[in-house]
Amino acid sequence: MMVAKYSVIVLYIQSFIRETWLKRYGSSPSAEMVTLMWSFIVSVYSIGGLLGSSSAGYLSVRFGRKKTMLLANIPALLGAALMGLSRLCGSFEMIIAGRLFSGVCGGLAQNVHIMFAGECAPRNLRGLIAITASTSIAVGKFVGFALGLREVLGVEALWPILLTANAVPVLVQFLTLPFFPDSPRYLLIDRKDKEGCIKAVKRLWGDGDHMAEINDMMSEQKAIGGEKAKSVWDLLRDRAVRWQLISMFLVISCMQLIGVNVVYFYAYNIFTKAGIPPDQIHYVSLGVGTTEILSTVLCGFLIERAGRKTLLWKSYTVMALALGLLTVTLSLQDSFFWVPYCSVALVFIFIMSFGIGPGGVVCPLITEIFIQSYRPTAYVFNGVINWIQLFMLGLVFPFIVEGLGNFCFIIFLTYCLSMAIFVFLVLPETKGKTMLQVMEEFNRLNYRGKKGQAALQQSNCSVVTVTRL
């Protein structure tokens, strides 16, 4: 939000809209029309992300994880080409279309990448490997900030090149990903290709005895019993995944309710109040981006030691405290000279807690709490809810800020505190456990009462039998 509001690139694109409109229609557009066109450019990315997320489940099962990631690069390249040529063709509509295609790639690739990484990793490195998605997102934000500086591409003549910068990692993936195998779990469980699974495991993990991991996959395959990938309706109504769905919705799908976008929104005013010149704010933003990168890297080192549950509830607690103190310091900004510096410190504490906790930990969770038949649909549900929440928050957030001012943090503080309690009391630990062991943990929540206990015993017996086989 802060970037969208204050980046000089916004001014260049709005100026381009005015010039194009004047050449095309012979009159200057109204300020409201320019704002409307810019709103389309901003919001259409979320629409594309929603479309991409909703198709991730079908494509990842139909074509496999690796091929789906390669397919996701096609709309990314098309979007980059449209945005890069928009000025040459004199069409701001091409920027809108380019943003739509880029959103499709973002929604599709993000879901499939996390699923692919989690399924390719051995059990003891599952969290660390999956967190690479969060680190990549943080690096992408940092690179976007850096390229947008005036000293790099943040000048009027080069903004079309800046909009095509996402084509570089896309081309790198196009050239390198074909040499990697597909997910071993996908090959064994969905394709029933045991030989291909063993080859993929050896290529990914090197030589060694990996039969224990392969046997875990075979146990999961037998537990599924040849069932095809489930639909969203199956996910919503099946009692066997009820608490997995609740946990995914509260912990993963509600990332927009944590308040990270709100902190970014207020960061500009906070840094200005601390005495940082407006023309230096972008460099401080690079510091915020660096903090997010370092925190996700730190999360990668901690997640297999401390565990998912511990990192989550402790980070949520620290974030709630940071938001509460930030509410106080923002209300007392002009009371003492040192208060603005406290606000700046709280921003960095919040961003670091976010990266160490939910920003990084949520990446492996979907892979770990859902078995293979539900996993693609779970990623679809998560992606769709996330993009809808992002779109809705973008619509209502200005009104929340206008109505509550600095006290808008109370809403997000309440959510963070509630999630700390939920994770501490309810969410099972998944560190170092097989998918079937995690399923047994959730079965104790899914099946309660006398009927539930009978169903639980039957389910556990079948799982034990399959594991022995």
In short:
It contains 23 helices and no strands.
Structural summary, described in words:
The protein has helices at residues 2-6, 8-25, 31-62, 65-89, 93-120, 126-130, 132-147, 159-163, 167-176, 184-190, 194-205, 211-224, 232-237, 242-253, 260-273, 281-306, 308-331, 339-356, 358-369, 375-404, 409-425, 435-446, 449-468. It has 469 residues and is mainly α. Helix 3 (31-62) packs antiparallel against helix 4 (65-89), helix 14 (242-253) crosses helix 20 and helix 16 (281-306) packs across helix 18. The relative contact order is 0.12. Mean pLDDT is 87; it is low at 1-6 and 461-469.
Number of strands: 0
What is the string of helix and strand elements?
HHHHHHHHHHHHHHHHHHHHHHH
Global outline: globular
What percent of residues adopt helix (DSSP H or I)? over 70%
